[in-house]
Amino acid sequence: MAEDAELVQRYLAHAQFEKRLAARTLALYAGDLQRLQALTEKDKVSLTEVQAHHMRRWMAQMHSSGRTPRGIALIASGWRGFYAWLGREGLVSANPLAGMRAPKAAKPLPKALNVDDAVQLAQYRPTDTSPWLQARDTAMVELLYSSGLRVGELMGLDVQAHAQAKGWIDLQTGEAHVLGKGSKRRSVPVGQQALAALQAWLAVRVEGLPASAA
Known about the structure:
With about 210 residues, this protein is of the alpha+beta class.
């Protein structure tokens, strides 16, 4: 539609001379608005007739065709700016993208250390750290590696079971009892090397604590 093409050119001129956008950014805006024009022509609506339901459907189509959530968010941002300008010009009564969010990007799962890296971490002994801290850190790393604990579970461990304990370690049976996700308790085995590191830590633990916490 000729009227739509004219609106796009007016907006790009506004972006270039009044918003002083970089040439690269302006080219991206132009490409996104060409994509929007193609969608409106396919649905036989003008740019000023676009409603929120059109935008939701178009974003869903982009998502299903494989475009990343970040890519969709960038396109939507350009469109939102265009419709904000149309509103200021009195050409639309509402921004069809107001309050609308692009699909959320999936959060990648954390990568586990391979065996060699985990062993290297467990065996690392910084020379500028006190023996007290070395014993503590070694016990923590060995417990994480041996039992597959989450950091939050590790932080909640106590040396014995009691009413306020979120978790504890039974040195006799070699098990850690922890409060995991969803407040569910679970028991996991603790390896001999982790038990030895824990006992070495407990032997010196009191030395570095304030008198009130000992």
